[in-house]
Amino acid sequence: MLFSFEVYSEQSAEEIVKARKALFSKNYSTAKKITSLTTDGEFDQAKQLILEMSENYKTLLNLFPDNTRDVFKTEALPAIWENKDDFNVLMNKASSDMIELSSLIETTDDMSIMLEKFMWGNCKSCHSKFRIPQ
Question: Which residues of 106-118 are buried (b: 16+ CB within 10 A; e: fewer)?
Answer without folding.
Answer: eeeeebeebbeeb
